[in-house]
Amino acid sequence: MLEAILVMAFGAVVLGAALGYAAVRFRVEGDPLVEKIDAILPQTQCGQCGFPGCKPYAQAIAKGEAEINQCPPGGEEGIHKLADLLGREFKPLSAEHGIEKPKSVAFIDEQTCIGCTLCIQACPVDAISGAAKQMHTIIADECTGCELCLPPCPVDCISMVPIAEDLPHWKWKHPVIMLKEVP
Amino acid sequence: MSRTLHTFKGGVHPPEHKAESNARPVHAAPLPRKLVIPLRQHIGNPAKPVVSVGERVLKGQLIGAADGYISAAVHASSSGTITAIGPALVPHASGLPDDCITIETDGLDEWITRTPLDYRALDPSELRMRLRDLGLAGLGGAAFPSAVKLDPGARHDCPTLILNGGECEPWITCDDVLMRQHADDILQGVAVMRHLLGSTEVIVGIEDNKPEAIAAMQAAAAKMDFATEVVAVPTIYPAGGAKQMVQTLTGKEVPSGKLSTDIGIQVFNVGTAYALARAVHRGEPLISRLVTVTGHVLRPQNVEALIGTPMQALIDVAGDRDGTTGVLMGGPMMGVPITNTGVPVIKATNCVLVKSRELFPPLPRALPCIRCTRCADACPAELQPQELFRFAKAGDFGRAQEYHLFDCIECGCCSYVCPSHIPLVDFYRYAKSEIWAREKEKRASDLARERHDFRQFRLEREKKEKAEKLAAKAKVKRAELAAAPAAEGAAAPSDADAKKALIAAALARAQAKKAEVAPKNVDHLPPEAQREIEEIEARRAKIREIAHQPLETDDKK
Ligand code: SF4
Ligand code: SF4
Ligand code: SF4
Prior knowledge:
- The structure holds 2 protein chains of 2 kinds.
- Chain A is mainly alpha-helical.
- Chain A has 2 domains: 66 residues, Electron transport complex subunit B, putative Fe-S cluster (3-methyladenine DNA Glycosylase II, Chain A, domain 3, Orthogonal Bundle), CATH 1.10.15.40; 64 residues, Alpha-Beta Plaits (2-Layer Sandwich), CATH 3.30.70.
- Chain A has 5 helices and 4 strands.
- A two-stranded antiparallel sheet of chain A has the order 1-4. In chain A, strands 2-3 form a two-stranded antiparallel sheet.
- Chain A is globular and about 60 Å long.
- Helices cover 40% and strands 16% of the residues of chain B.
- In chain B, helix 4 packs parallel to helix 5, helix 4 crosses helix 7 and helix 10 packs across helix 13.
- The longest helix of chain B has 64 residues.
- Chain B is elongated, with a radius of gyration of 39 Å.
- By secondary structure, chain B is an alpha/beta fold.
- Chain B contains 15 helices and 17 strands.
- The interface between A and B is large, with 36 and 38 residues.
- The structure holds iron/sulfur cluster (3 copies).
- One iron/sulfur cluster (SF4) binds next to helix 3 of chain A.
């Protein structure tokens, strides 16, 4: 019992230190604009914008090298927010970068999975667990729905499942009120 | 009884409609064939099922265990067989299904063995865990797990305990009837609460339109060994709101965004105290409650209903009538519309209100807001409902929060007085759930950013480690090469070094070949030329040496 606790505690300390180091090491030297843009981007890390992740896209926008309408997961709302932040004109989502889709998570058919680890290498947020020659599983809470794990899978056992609306995710809708017309 | 009462700002006087249901005797609802018990009946984590399909369970048996601190257990309300565990329709504004445990009852109503708790002997935290496992949750409507509210916490003690018998919503009378019939038990529950919270002052607040309940509670209080003040408070909606009750009785205002415990006051509903008494003194988990069935029914009344009983069964007891236009769970001001009357009674179900065209005429169409500020005058939370409405409608949630959207208790006073009949509360609910959803999204994207950054860091580190390994290998090889000429003719190299030796030999051969094809025009040179050549060779060797070096210096950081 005690060993288990110690092992876990040690693991926590090591990971914490690593994360802390990463935070210092990969800090973009105080460009608040990039940070602000990055905060708006959905962090799906899918690369549909043409950049290898949200941060590089944010940097490109900040430098004026990219349009603000290239992020499909962020959708129209994201573009509006970017337009407001940067004082640029709103533009509809550029079709060549993709379309806005309902939020989904990847699902691995564990019967078919051969445990090749290719999807693990593709996942930008390490949301797939599994070891060589063992079936893999998606950590659904951490999956951003980027679809990057689909192409590398040699047996096509990964599919995207839209997140169904259930009770904890249900939202009150905007009330429809009928205003009487003024005659 | 000389307490000076205070008033809160705002409030309305809707028609009470209490007399319809509070005069009839209380009956137990008939045992239904099927009980559907939702796992999420309280605020916090849903309970985790601990039974399997096909299993026989007894009345009061634990079927869903509390999951975490803010959670409560659920129990079988009667004996029978588990027929399903999975999504089923529940009473919720969304009309969406949620995880439930379905029991086919066997009609025996066979109890588990119940063991009363000796609450004075138990350690307080142990007692709270027991209460959580007995499924106790607030019965006033919000269904907050009681064990959490009974924890005074490390910092605040709770000198004042308020028992809320306000029941200010029109039509509902279950607390009134409970106080009339079970005043002694309620105060037994209060004794346990007092014990856990260390309260020195106990006040029971009851609206003055319930004289029988006040009399019953006063009679019961006289018998107890601790002082309980039973106070009649003016009848005005929403006097039974927790913050309003606190203000009326103590004059203290709960600050925005704070809980009443932050100012040393805890508030419980009378029904919760009764359930607590049953749990402690009889060992009974929370498996039934009083429900007012009223409105457009033949015999409006209160019934003792098992949790999981379909609401239609209660409507049948009270006498279904033609011309029903809808059903609300709760009262007309704050109730939730129920689209399917097959949904079960849950711990938060205080009332099943059947609507008809006569009793609840449809609202006239909404008109634009004329900024009359009548809503602001009526708002007990001292908000500016017309501004909140404007921001919520426009999707300007940041401004809505600045105007204290989250202090809104959704009492409905504003909608009630609005001359333009704007369904204001619907807008606040919409705005609140949008804000929560965005916060959730924000947390998810923050997590994704962190994980992505960490992955980048990990990849970088792996790359560096690989490079370092390669560099180290190269270094070893070079060292061997340097040593090779010296070792020539020495003992045969060990097995492990065989490969390296082979490579070294190959290299040596290559060098020898190079030497063989040395330029022929250098045979008979004058000494100056010879020296010059030697110098050049030395320089070359140095350059070669330097060319090897960067790999080594790179190693250091
Ligand atoms: S397109 Fe994908 S990678 Fe690019 S900013 Fe949007 S979520 Fe991030
Ligand atoms: S009561 Fe209605 S019309 Fe008057 S200010 Fe409030 S929302 Fe507007
Ligand atoms: S519903 Fe909210 S805004 Fe309206 S009166 Fe009640 S507390 Fe005030």
